[in-house]
Amino acid sequence: MERSEKFWNPYLAGMALGLVLLATFLVMGRGLGASGAANRLSIAVAQTVAPSVVASSRPMAALARERRGVLDDWLVFEILGVLLGGAFGAYTAGRLQFGVIRGAGVGVASRLGFAFAGGALMGMAARAARGCTSGQGLSGGAVLSVGAWVFMMAVFAGGYAFAWFMRRQWR
Amino acid sequence: MSLPIEALVLSQRELGLVVAVVLGFGFGFVLERAGFGRATKLAAQFYLTDMTVLKVMFSAIVTAMGGLLVAAGLGLTDLSAISLSIAGWTWLWPMLVGGFVLGAGFIISGYCPGTCLVSAGSGNLDGLVAFAGVVVGSFVYNLLLAIPAVETFHTSGELGAMFLYELIGVPAPVVGVAVAIMAIGAFVGAEKIEAIMRRRRAAETEAVSADEPRPRRIAFATFLALAGLAVVLLVLPHGSGAQTAPVVKTIGAEELAKRLVDEPWRVRVIDLRPAAEYAASRVPGSERAEASGLAALELEYADPSREIVVITPSAPRDLPAALAAYRGEVRALDGGWPAWKAFALDAPQPPAEDATATERDRYAFRGAINASLTGQKTAPVASAPTTVRVQREKQKGGGCGA
Predict the structure, then answer these.
(1) Which residues 6+ apart lie within 8 Å of B213 measured at CB?
(2) What is the DSSP letter of B342?
C-alpha cells in the first residue's frame, strides 16, 4: 500500500523546527537531542544485564551513580516526546503504518542489517562528538558553537563520501 | 524576566520533565511532517535528488539562532551563559572525526539518531533497529574509552568554550547575518541542484517531467531572507557587542551563605586555593580541587541539579576549562576568597540606629554566620528575630573557622 508522501514545505518545516528549538533554548536552557538519551538507555540496560561491566567503566559508572537513576534525565523524557510526536504526525497525515522503509535495491533483512550497523556507527560517533545531528548539529549550530559547525560539515562530508558505496541500497 | 526558567531544572524539576515531553513532541511532530521519518527521503540528500535535509536543517538553525540573538539583544537572556549550557565546548578532533563517522552511519542506516526515533514512532521497524544500533554503539564507545588511546582521542583538540563570533572576533549578530546569508545561498544552490537532477532524470526516462520546478520554493527562500533581515535589523541596535568576551557568572558571598544555610544540598562548593590556605580556613562543606585536577571530578557525569560555586584565590577572571563540562549551573564567588573572608570571617558593623528591618536582618544573618565560623559573638541587634537559622551551618562546618 502506498503511503502518503505529502510533506510540509521544507523551509516552513525548518522554521517550525527552529521555533521548537528556540522554545527549548529559552524555556529550558537546553538544546534538543537524541544520542544522549540513547547513551543513558544503554547504561540502564547494561545495569540490569551486566552491572559489573557498568561498574568497571568510568563513564558508565559516573552516570549510573546519579542519585535519581540513569534514566531520570531531561533528554530521556524529551525523546519519549519525539517518539509520540512522530507517531502523532504520522497518524494525522495518514501514514502511521507498520513496515520497513527501504530502497528498491535491497531486501528487508539486509536493510535492517544496514540500519543496525549504521546506527551503531552513529552511536559511537555521537559519543565522540558529544552529540548527534540534533544535539550538536542543530542546537550547537544555532548557538554558533565552533565545534558544532565543524561537526556538521563533517557529517555532510561523511554522508557524501559513503553515498557511492551505499548507492544500491537507496536506488 | 530572565530566561531560561531555572526553576524547571531545579525546584520545579518534575514540571520541567513534562515540558521536556511536550517540546520533544513538537520536535518529533515537525520532523515527521518534514518527511524525516523516512529513510529514503533522508538518504536522497546524499544523491542530490532531494535536498530537504539541508533546507530544513539550515532553516531551523537560522530561525533558532535569530530568535536567540533577538532574545539576548532585548536582554531576556544572557547569550554566553545560555549558549554554554546548550552546547559550547569544542573538542576539535573527536567532533571532526565523530561527524564524519556519523555521516557515514547516516547514509548506511538512512537516519540520524533523532530521526530514527521519529521513524520508529511512525511504525517503521528499520527506524527502531537503527535506534537499537545507536544504543549499542554508545555502549561500545563507553567500553572503548577504557583504552588510553581512545581516551586521549576523546579529549583531544580541546578549544574550550568557543563560538564562531569569538573565533572571528566580531559581535554575534554579525555572524548571525553571515550565517543567514550563507543559508540562503545554500538554499538557492540546493534548488538549482534539484532542478538539474530532475532534468537529468527526465532525460533518462524520456518522459515529460511531471515534477515541474515549483516557484513557490523560491518564494519561501525570499520570505526566509526577509525574515532573517528583519531579525538582524531588530538585533543590531541592541547587540552592542556586549556578548563577545565570555563572562564568568558570579554569586555574591551573602547569597552563597544563604544558600549554604537554606539548601546546602543544592550547592557544591569547589575551592581552588592552595592546600595550605584551604587547610587554614574554608567555606563550610567545600571541597578542594586543583584547577588542573578538575577532570578527575568527572563533572561531565555529575548530578547537574547542584550548582557548583567555585572559590578562587582572588577575584575570578577566568574559570578552568574543565568546569564547562558540567551540565548544571557553575558560578564563581564574586571577589573570590577575599570576599568570603570579608563577609563571613570579619565581624560585621552593627547597623545604625535608623536601619531598616532588612538591614537589621542582614546584620543578624551575617553576625550569626560570623559567630558560627569564628566562635566570636557579634553585638546583638535589637530587631525582630530573623527567620534564618544557622544551626545546620554549624553542623556542616565541623572543624572550620579561622
Answers:
(1) B191, B194, B195, B198
(2) I
Q: Which of A157, A134, A122 is nearest to A17 (CA)?
A: A134
Alpha-helical (H) ranges within chain A are: 10-28, 35-49, 51-56, 58-64, 74-92, 108-129, 141-142, 146-163, 167-170
Q: Which of B38, B61, B76 sits opposite A18 (nearest CB)?
A: B61
From the CA of B203, how many Å to the nearest CA of chain A?
Answer: 17
Nearest to B360 by CA among B370, B368, B350: B350
pLDDT tens string A102-114: 988 889 999 999 9
CA–CA dist A120, A125 (Å, integer): 9
- Among A86, A136, A155, the residue with its CB nearest the CB of B87 is A136
Phi and psi, residue B268, nearest 5°: -130, 115
Which tens digits make up the pLDDT trace of A96-148?
Answer: 989 999 988 889 999 999 999 999 999 999 999 999 999 999 999 999 999 99
Work out the burial of residue B374: count CB atoms within 10 Å of its CB; fewer than 13 is exposed, 13-18 middle, 19 or more buried.
middle
Q: Which of B25-34, B85-94, B220-229, B301-310 has the lowest mean pLDDT?
A: B220-229
Alpha-carbon gap, residue B122 to B33, rounded angstroms: 11
Q: What phi, psi does B161 have (nearest 5°)?
A: -75, 105
ipTM: 0.96
User: What is the mean predicted confidence (pLDDT) over B368-392?
Assistant: 66
Contact A95, A87 (CB under 8 A): no
Grid coordinates of B15? 514540571
Angle between helices A146-163 and B92-109 (to 10 degrees): 40
Instruction: Label each residue of B134-186 as H, E or C.
Output: HHHHHHHHHHHCCCHHHHHHHCCCEEEECEHHHHHCCCHHHHHHHHHHHHHHH
A147:B159 CB<8 A: yes
Distance from A136 to chain B by nearest Cα, in Å? 7
Q: Is B252 on the interface with A (CB under 8 A)?
A: no
Inspect the interface and report whether the beta carbons of A78 and B135 lie closer than 8 Å: no
